[in-house]
Design goal:
alpha+beta, SH3 type barrels, 5-stranded antiparallel sheet, 1 helix, 25% helix, HypC/HybG/HupF family hydrogenase formation chaperone
Length: 81
């Protein structure tokens, strides 16, 4: 299963369709295409799917989504295999 995950943009380089961002996912930093979210700036949260930022999130949405993902992970780790 593939999930879209929120991350925070640390830095941006390039323009238009070649625009790339360094995005932090809980400390793990990945290069992500920002072509689909031209309004995104450093410090913003974006939803990333297969290496592409597909939408921008406000801080409250990002924190809520990260909390849900942590709860899912905790639940999965507590269930017997």
């Amino acid at each position: 299963m593939c999930l879209a995950v929120p991350g925070k943009i640390i830095s941006i380089k390039g323009e238009d369709l070649s625009r790339m961002g360094r995005v932090s996912f809980g400390g793990v930093v990945k290069e992500v295409s920002l072509a689909y979210v031209p309004e995104a700036q450093a410090g913003d949260y974006v939803v990333v799917h297969v290496g592409f930022a597909i939408s921008k999130l406000d801080l409250e949405e990002a924190e809520q989504t990260l909390t849900y993902l942590q709860q899912i992970e905790a639940s999965a780790n507590s269930e017997p295999a």
